[in-house]
UniProtKB/TrEMBL annotation:
Domain N-acetyltransferase: 297-452
Molecular-function annotations in GO: acyltransferase activity, transferring groups other than amino-acyl groups
Top-level lineage group: Bacteria
Gene3D superfamilies assigned to the protein according to its UniProt record, in alphabetical order: 3.40.630.30
Naturally occurring in which organism (per UniProt): Streptomyces cinnamoneus (Streptoverticillium cinnamoneum)
Alphabetical list of Pfam families matching this protein: Acetyltransf_1
Region (Disordered) residue spans: 72-95
Compositional bias ranges of the Low complexity kind: 81-93
Annotated signal peptide: none
Name of the featured protein: N-acetyltransferase domain-containing protein
InterPro entries noted in UniProt: Acyl_CoA_acyltransferase, GNAT_dom
Amino acid sequence: MTDETFAKSSARHRHHWRRDLVELAALFTAVATADAVADTVVHGPDGPVLLISSAGALLATAAFHTWWSRRRGHAPPPAAADPAPGAAARPAPAGGGTALWRMRTTVRDEPGSLAALCLSLADRRVDILALQTHPLADGTVDELLLRAPAALAPAELALAAAGGGGRETWLERADAHDLVDAPTRILGLATRTALDAAELPLALRQLLGRCTIRSIPARSPLTGAPAESVPEDGVWEETVLRLRDPSGGSITIERPYLPFTPTEFARARALVELDARLGPRVPPRSDVLTLPEGNAITVRRAGADDVDAARQMHERCSPATLNRRYHGPVGDADRYLRHLLGPRFGRTLAAHTASGRLVALGHLLWDGNETEVALLVEDEWQRRGVGGELLRRLIAMAGEAGCESVYAVTTASNTGMVAAMRALDLPLDYQIEEGTLVITARLAPVASRTAPQAASRRADG
């Protein structure tokens, strides 16, 4: 028994004797009144007949009341009230489950504009799960996470937004990962960036949605010419953001299908500033592997501190090996290596012997929306399984990063690279152009994040 129930029971027991006294007094009063009336009627003319008639009338009234009460008790419930004149009739909930959508629409910056949008969506049984606002000079961009009936077409959602005052509406399918609120998601991206400098381009892509991110070095690795400088505060140009890279050069973010907002520009700049304050960093994890022939190698992440060891490995490689890797003669190895080992352009794995000598490098390179893999194994350590082990780990890293595919650029004569790609047991596509072979491996969907399915719609209201 709860405390509330016990208190109510105690109150009933405390007031029980008072109710009994009141009922007893009412009974005595009724008896005295009835005795006075009966005495008056009996001593009058036709008194007994009048009493019997009154008793019969009372019995008939009681019987009629009982019959009427039972009849009303079995009556059907009253019909629902008709909607008020001018009110929009809501359609019945659509069957077949629900679907998650991300919507971005621009509304007027005035009281009631968001309420009108919500009512228009509610008329189509669309539930708003999350909302972010991006203030603009001439309005407000509302970003909503919606749960809508599965049968509701994207065009109907766009029309609902237009009916609620929205314009320049954009839609794409969402999934369960989008249910995480924005502050939690941003803090998670900041944590990933703090642990690994190579995570910054990936974090920016997840922060800003489907976009193309390119890291431009301070000097071209081919010609050595300096790149265009970017102001310290960055540049915001509608669908293009340019930010100064703390490690040198710049980061360009493009999203042609949807203009950036000042809020998104500020978030991206804050993430880059965090990376600048933390400085260069590479996770210290390393694994010791035993090759089929019995030799042990150590595989770990490589960074800018490994440039000297990588240059020495290049000097030990034959011209044919370097030509297969770089598709031509290597001019300035230092310039290539500082570019490849930089954290902005991807991730690099290095294989070391038991004595600490660097014998192989594996690169996972961010190339806009695509991802490239490349291997360089010292001649003495080729055909021992080192390259295949590095490649498998690079593919796993690409899957964790949410990449849909990776490609390798080589030649048909590079049988080692072709065999390593085929050993991945993944769907492969081959393209040969002017003697260059491009092998693309399609990765299986990963649990961390699947690429969103775009369903963009615009409705000018």
